[in-house]
Amino acid sequence: MLRRDLKQATFQVFFIFFTIGVFAFLLSSPAAAQPKGEPIKIGWIAELSGTWSFFGATGLTAAQIAEEEINAKGGVLGRPIQVIPMDNRTDPAQAASAARMLDTQHKVLTFSGPTSSDTALAVYGYAEQNKVPFVVPVAAFPRLTRPGTEWTFRVEPDAVGWGYAIVKFVEKMKPGASIALIYSDFALQRAIVAGIKYQAERSGIKIATDIIFPQNATDATVQAAQVKSKNPDFVFVSGGGAFDVTLTNQILDLGIKPEQIIHPFGAVKMILGWGPRSVGSYYGTFFDHSLGGLNEYGKGLITKFTKRAGYIPAYIENFCYATVYLIKEAVEKAGTVDRTKFRDAMRNINTKEITTGIPMVFDKNGARKEYMYFLQMKEVGKDTYQSKEAFYIEWDPEVIPVYQLAP
Fold it and tell me: What residues form DSSP beta bridges with 94?
C-alpha cells in the first residue's frame, strides 16, 4: 500500500514539473512572443476604387498577409507592424491628399501601396518635399527614381526597361520583325512604349503602327481593324485596367493569332479575363505560380492568398507582400523608426526578395536592378491558369536612357 502511494506521489510530482517545463518552453518560444507597444505604421495608399482598383485591392490583401505573418512572429523590434490602407481612388489628387493625412495625422514611418504610376507620382511629390520615405511596390514609371531622388525606392523594375526587354524578346523570336503598338494613355504604358521605340530602332525591329487610347476608352473595334490591316508579326497590347481585357478580345475577334500578342504584364484577373482564346500569347512578369524556384515564402503566399482571395497571386501581389518584408528588414537594420535612419538603411540594403531569392539592391536614386520573365500561356481555366517560361533577361537600369525617355 505504501509502495503504491509512493509511486502515485512520484508520478504526480513528475507530472507537475513536466507541465511547468512545457509551459516555460512555450513562453520562451519566439513564436509565442507577442509584439507590444506603438505600432510601426506603413501608410498604404492604394487604388481601392477607380480604374486600377483590381490591382490596388489585390495588392492590399497580399500586404495584409505579410503584416499578419510578421506580427505572429514577434513583429519588428518587438513592436507590431501596421498597414494602414487609404483609398486613392486612382486619382493623383486624392493620392496626395491621402499622403498628407497619413503623414500629419497617422504619423506613419513610410508610404507604400500605389500600383498606378500616375497616383504614385503624386505620392512621390509629397514624399520628396516633406521627407517621408516612400517604398513603391508596383508602380514602374522611371520618374519615381529620377536623378536626385532622396526618399523614394522602387521595388518593381522601371517601365521603360520593360519596353527594352520586349524588343529583345521579339528580336530573339524573329530578327527584323514588325510589331504593332496598341495601348492606353497612362504613364505606365507611355513609358513602356518609349522603351520599345528606342530599342526597336537599334535592334532593327519595325513599328507597324502606333495607336493610343484615352484613359476612359471602352471600345477598340475600329482600332483593332487598323492593326489587322498592317499585318504585323507581333502586337503589343496594353489597355488600362479592365479595358485591357476588352482590347485583347477585340484583337482576337479580328483574327490576330494568340502567338502574335505580347502583353507587357499579366495580373491574374487580366489573364483569366483574356480567357482560353489567349492560350499561346505572351506576357511579361516578375513572379508567377508557374515559375520554378519559388521558396517556402513564395509557395506560402500562393497558398494563403488563394485561400483568402479565391484566385492565385501573381507579380502585383508578390511585390506588395515582399515590400512589407523589405520594410521590416530596413527597420531592423536601422534599429529605430526614425525616418532618416530608415531611409539610410533602405539605401544600404543588400538583400533578397523574400519569395524568390532575387537580389534586392537599390542604386543612388532608389532604382532596383532590372530583370523580367516572359511567359507563354498554356492553359486558362475559370480561376487558374498555367504558363511556361519563354524568355528571361537581366539588365542594368542605365543600359538605356530611361530618364530622358520618360522624364
Answer: none
User: 96 with 192, same domain?
Assistant: no
Q: Does residue 254 sit in the same domain as residue 397? A: yes
Do 250 and 221 form a contact (C-beta atoms < 8 A)? yes
Helix (H, G, I), strand (E, B) or coil at 308: helix
Same domain, yes or no: 280 and 300: no
C-alpha cell of 45? 495608399
Does one domain contain both 133 and 219?
A: no
Count of alpha carbons within 13 Å of 8, Cβ hemisphere only?
5
Record the pTM: 0.85
What residue ranges in 286-363 does DSSP mark as E strands? 350-352, 359-361
Q: Which three cell numbers stand for residue 248?
A: 485583347
340 shares its domain with 211: no
Tens of pLDDT, residues 72-89 = 999 999 999 999 999 999
pLDDT in tens, 101-128: 999 999 999 999 999 999 999 999 999 9
Q: How do 370-380 and 282-285 pair as beta strands?
A: antiparallel
What is the domain range of residue 183? 160-285+372-405
Burial of 298 (0-12, 13-18, 19+ CB in 10 A): buried
**Same domain? 377 vs 353:** no
Cα separation of 184 and 254, whole Å?
Answer: 19
Q: Are 293 and 8 in contact (CB under 8 A)?
A: no
Query: In this structure, are 301 and 281 located in the same domain?
Result: no
Residues in contact with 180: Cβ distance below 8 Å, sequence separation at least 6, in sequence order? 207, 208, 209, 210, 211, 227, 230, 232, 234, 235, 236
Q: How many domains does the chain have?
A: 2
- Asked if residue 235 and residue 124 are part of one domain, the reply reads no
